[in-house]
Structure formats: structure tokens, C-alpha cells
Amino acid sequence: MKIKQTKRAVLALLFTVALSGTMGTAVTARAATYTTVSTTNVTKAAYHKKSTTGAIYNKAHSKRLATMKGYPNTTWYVTKHATLKHGNTKGIYYYVQNKAGSVKGWTWHGYLVKGTAPFGLKYAKNAVALDYTTGKAVWSKSANTARPIASVSKIMTLYLTLQKVNSSAGKWRDVVKTNDAGLVAMSKDAGCGGFVFKSGHKYTVKDLYYAALLDSSNNAAIALGQWVAGSNAKFIKQMNAQAQAWNLDKTSFVSASGLENSDLKVFGYNYGRANANMVSAKDVALIARHLIQDYPRVLTDGSIGSKTVDGQTAYNYNNMLAGRKYYKSSLKVDGLKTGYTPLAGYCFVGTGQKAGKHRVITVVLHDENEFTETQSLMNKAYSYSSMNN
User: Fold this and answer.
1) How many domains does the chain have?
2) Is the dihedral angle over the CA atoms 193, 201, 227, 291 positive or is it negative?
3) From the candidates 187, 216, 257, 376, which is the catalytic residue?
4) Which residue in 49, 141, 154, 357 is the catalytic one?
5) Is 337 annotated as a binding residue?
6) pTM over the 0.90 mark
7) How far apart are alpha carbons 263 and 273 in whole angstroms?
């Protein structure tokens, strides 16, 4: 028992010494006693974090309310200064709150630097905002690095499908071969399917187009590719040829659907040496731009919330559409494509056109908050004067 008490005493002494070094570390003392020497109201001013160090507390420092690390791109608005005393040490603290007023409290002034926070995305590994009118990126984060993109890959498959439909080579009512054993098995697989190919049913190009676009059906995408080019392998070669024709040098396809070869192998649809489609965020945005430019109907189709296709519900997983959780009326989102695999993470290519602005195309890859970060990215894109009509 004495050993434990002695250990506690030593720790307490070390903690006191640490506190006396700088008031910057004092904010981490959750049980410490702070007294207010003086408080002054000041003109509201913007600050942002100096580093990931620091936290926000209530004035008595008995409760930690937030950490600077948890709000990497937040602008904090300071309206009060206070001198707080802890033991024989005094420090200057600022009363801060975020723009929404949902997080507020006191933090040591040394954790902040004056000015609004630079824009950034916390979760997306790769991202870009593209001005649809000019084709130029207005903001980016590692946008030229190729990485797995999951079902976002289907925008190329849809482009080549629409290309054939809009030529004399194919029609919407054409019946697509869907009875291959691998496709049927995939359609019934909970992890890899999404739209069941039923025995005895005939599916048209239009059926599978909606199944691939809205429901993100992998088997529908592969079946469409085989309809376009004659075989899975020939279609993937066509995907890569189209990317090369557009001078997309950070794009390489091995899958019509976006599934990785490690999943496709069991169904007999693996292709090439690489495991996954590898495409940069900027190249994804440029593919989306070509799709919208050449076949604008994809915006009308992509804004459909759900559609019954051969008795099955093709549900659109774009949760930025009207009536969905992340809908913002000002952003006017009308597309385009979600994607997810464990390897690629959550991916989303979105598009919308705010009143008086150019259309924006945004891409976030491997982003666990893909819709909230897309909201932020779209708003940031619209803030640039080059986006004005």
C-alpha cells in the first residue's frame, strides 16, 4: 500500500513540474483547479489551430470538450480573452466557438494562430473538384495518384454502353446475354451481386443500364460490357483504349464493374495481372466530364432515387439527392456514382450546379465521410471566382 502511495506522490510531483513549464500543457489537466483572474470581451476574430496539440475545455478546466486534432480544418471565432490562474502560474486563454456554435469553450492562446483555417478534407485520401465548363481542377488533394476506385469504375462502362446505344450498333431494347453461370452466381452473391439474374427472364440494355447506374450491380455492368464488346476481356481493352484516347495517363482498368480480381476470380471474370482498377481522382473526374458532356441524360437518370426493374428495386445509393440525409438544396446535386470495396474504401463522384455557377464535378476516394466531405468540397469549389457564369 505504501508503494502505491509513494508512486502516486511521485506522479503528482512530475505532473506539477510539467504544469509549471508552460500553461499550454495545463489544459490537459482535467481535474485541475483554475481560477479566473480577469475576462475581457474582444472584437470577434478568426483563428485556426497552430498544430494538432491542444484541447478546448470549460472555464474551470474540469471537462475537456474537444481536441484541436479532432477539428483540423475548423475556423475558431474568438470573442473573449481571460487570464486564468493555476497554482502560482497564470496564462492567457481564448473563448472560441466554431461557425455553427456547436463546439465552444476555452483554450490556451498558444494553440491558435490568427486567420481562417485553410481548407482541407480530413478523411479522403484523394480528392478533386473540377470546373465542368473549363475542365480545370479548382482544388485537389493527391489528385494525380492512381488508386482503387471500386464501383466508380462503372462510369466508364456506362459511357461505352451509351456510346453503342447512340450509334447504329445497338439499341436500348436489345436483349443482353445474362445466363452465364458466373454472372448468375454473382447476381445471387450477397457481397458481389445486387441485381439478381432470374432464370427464364430476359434483360434489355436499358434494364441493365439502370441496374448498373442506380443499384451498382456488378453482374449487370459485366453483362453490359460483354454486350458492348463481345467478351469481358475485349471490353476491358476497350475501356483502356478509351482512357488512352482521352490522354488519361493515371488510369488502368482490369474490371468492368470495379470489383477486384480477388473477388472476380471465383466467378471466372478476373482479368490481367493487377488486382484492381487503378485510377486517379482527377482522371475519374475527367471521365465523368466526358460522360456528362456526351450523354447528358445520365444526369436525369442519375438523379432517380429508385426504380423498379423487372420486379426488382434498383436503389440509388447517392445520399446527396433530394429527400436523402445529405441533401443540400443549394448544391443542386444530380449525380453521379458511389462505390465501395474494403480495398478502395468509400468512393463518390458527385456533380451539381449551384445557381449562377459553373457545374462542378467532385471526386473523393477512400473517404469514410464521403457525402459530408463532398458537401464541403462542392462549397469550396463554388467559392472560387472562376466558377462564376
Assistant:
1) 2
2) negative
3) 216
4) 154
5) yes
6) no
7) 14
